[in-house]
Design brief:
571 residues; four-stranded antiparallel beta sheet; elongated; Alpha-Beta Plaits; 7% strand; two-stranded antiparallel ribbon; alpha+beta; Ammonium transporter fold
Length: 571
């Protein structure tokens, strides 16, 4: 076989760009989740690539591209067989192999975002391996390996279905079996917003993914040595960019109307939705078709996120199901409508009838059915053997420390106080005996502190982060009307526990704790202490401490009330 230098370089550059998508997924997922799980997110995105690479080499590549049957390829450990029937013109075997390896890893990494913040790391490693071994190669053989769907004429140029919908369905099934994060839904089933900790990370991740998508889609021509391939590559690049940009514009407008303000995180998700949607037909549609696909995906991603959050009760922290599963399937079907006939049959809107559209629908449904069955068996097997979900206490404390012994992914960083300055010439307002007329909440009387008023006591409770919610609810149930909560670091007699970084013991004498400060007067101090002890007690080291102090006075700044009434809500 004669190799083409330009084709080889083109595919290798594409492989490198698709590999770099792992960085984009890492940043995206870390930014849209909480800081206490950052190290876990980064570790998972590293390991799905590292686990998938040898598995795809040992078995996946042969199952996907081997000339076995129309349903499955061949078992060919270490890629030693003859693949001349499938190799692109002028591209060496190992160049094609690495290009397909990075695609396999992309499919696996999609799942981690939807199942973030509550999945055992060991379970993640197992199902990531299963995706690279049992799921992606088999369905990929149907589409790209000469299998039955490719024989029918199913068109998925760069993987809206083969990569993204496969990963998205795995994410949906996994998140459903796993259940929502603690605190995601209230007792009535109403979802609560759990904000990501770093929108800058998420934005940078999206831009990295957008940039790398030019390699994901563009290099799927697997050649640049002819006028036709160069023309196709240019069209692919243009359509890829068009769909993403239009999707962002549409989501911005749609959320502006729907939520009264343009939603930042949803608009960034829309960029990915447009990219996923155009991936199947980026070579086959016109720029106008790409724009329409962007419009559909821009609206659909918002509605899908709301549906899974509010109706289906599937907790997806990063929107991976809506972006990859929903928009991947939609983009594949829309190719059957908007294909112009350049590289495929004509779509329905271009005079091609329903034949090609029907094939696209059959392909989406058959792949979805196969993936659903296999990944459900995988997840249920993991759930009832090694366990799929982290313990509740570990989830609340964060998977960084419980799964990896990483106290924080942001050592050396601290939250700074607000640096806003007062306007020049504005003096502090002195609280007098009268309430200003413009006061938002009217107060009828202002009492001053005098001797003989009830005694005030401050109860300070230091406890595990995982027990805070239970403590807070217990305090509210006995009549506590207010508390101050701080995240602190501390240790008791045990001096913390040893953790290791790169094999070296870390001086981990200070452990994350929650400090709750309560000032009481009407509620008996002993009742507060006994309630806290009952809630916090486990019998293990680290249950916490309770400190009791006398308080001389209490002053409510807004009204000027002092003493007992400063602790009450008197109107």
């Amino acid at each position: 076989m004669t190799y083409s230098a330009v084709n080889t370089i083109w595919v290798l550059i594409g492989a490198a760009l698709v590999f770099f998508m792992q960085a984009g997924f890492s940043m995206c997922e870390a930014g849209f989740t909480r800081a206490k799980n950052t190290g876990n997110i980064l570790m998972k995105n590293l390991m799905d690539f590292c686990i998938g690479t040898p598995i795809f080499w040992l078995a996946g590549f042969g199952l996907m591209f081997g000339s076995g049957s129309s349903v499955i390829g061949t078992f060919d450990p270490m890629i030693r067989g003859d693949y001349s029937h499938i190799l692109p013109s002028g591209v060496p075997l190992w160049v094609f192999a690495i290009f397909q390896t990075v695609f396999c890893a992309t499919s696996a990494t999609i799942v981690s975002g939807a199942m973030a913040e509550r999945t055992k790391f060991s379970a993640y490693c197992v199902y990531s391996a299963a995706i690279s071994l049992l799921i992606y190669p088999i369905s990929g053989h149907w589409i790209w390996g000469g299998g039955w769907l490719s024989q029918l004429g199913f068109h998925d140029f760069a993987g809206s279905t083969a990569v993204h919908m496969v990963g998205g369905i795995c994410a949906m099934i996994g998140a459903k079996i796993l259940g929502p994060r603690i605190g995601k839904y209230d007792k009535d089933g109403k979802p609560r917003a759990i904000l990501g900790h770093n929108l800058t990370f998420a934005a940078l991740g999206v831009f990295i993914l957008w940039f790398c998508w030019f390699g994901f889609n563009g290099a799927s021509t697997v050649g640049m040595d002819s006028d036709a391939l160069m023309e196709t590559a240019g069209r692919v690049f243009f359509n890829t960019n068009m769909a993403a940009a239009v999707a962002c514009c549409i989501t911005l407008i749609f959320t502006w109307i729907r939520y009264k303000k343009p939603d930042v995180s949803m608009t960034y998700n829309a960029a990915l939705a447009g990219l996923v949607g155009i991936t199947a037909g980026c070579d086959a549609v016109s720029p106008a078709g790409a724009a329409v696909i962007g419009i559909v995906c821009g609206i659909l991603v918002v509605l899908a996120v709301e549906f899974f959050d509010k109706k289906a009760k599937i907790d997806d922290p990063v929107g991976a199901i809506s972006v990859h599963c929903v928009c991947g399937a939609t983009g594949t079907v829309l190719t059957g409508l908007f294909a112009t006939g350049i590289t495929t049959e004509k779509g329905l809107f271009y005079g091609g009838g329903v034949h090609f559209l029907g094939i696209q629908v059959i392909g989406v449904l058959s792949v979805a059915a196969y993936v659903t069955v296999i990944i459900t068996l995988v997840f249920l097997t993991i759930k009832y053997t090694i366990g799929l979900r982290a313990d509740a206490e570990d989830e609340i404390a964060g998977l960084d420390v419980s799964e990896h012994g990483l106290l924080t992914a942001y050592d050396g960083f601290a939250m700074l106080p607000d640096t806003a300055t007062e306007d020049e010439g504005t003096a502090p307002v002195t609280v007098a005996g009268e309430t200003p007329v413009a006061e938002a909440i009217p107060v009828k009387k202002v009492l001053s502190f005098e001797e003989g008023t009830p005694k005030f006591t401050k109860v300070e409770i230091v406890c595990k982060e995982s027990r805070f919610e239970a403590l807070k609810n217990a305090m509210m149930s006995i009549g506590i009307t207010g508390m101050t909560v701080s995240h602190v670091l501390g240790c008791g007699i045990q001096k913390g526990r040893a953790e290791y970084y790169r094999g070296i013991q870390v001086e981990a004498n200070l452990l994350p704790k929650v400090q709750v400060e309560i000032v009481v007067s009407a509620v008996p101090v002993r009742k507060v202490i006994d309630t806290a002890k009952k809630v916090l007690y486990t019998g293990h080291i680290g249950d916490g401490k309770i400190f009791v102090y006398d308080v001389e006075n209490v002053v409510k700044v807004r009204t000027g009330e002092e003493g007992f009434d400063a602790l009450q809500d008197i109107e």
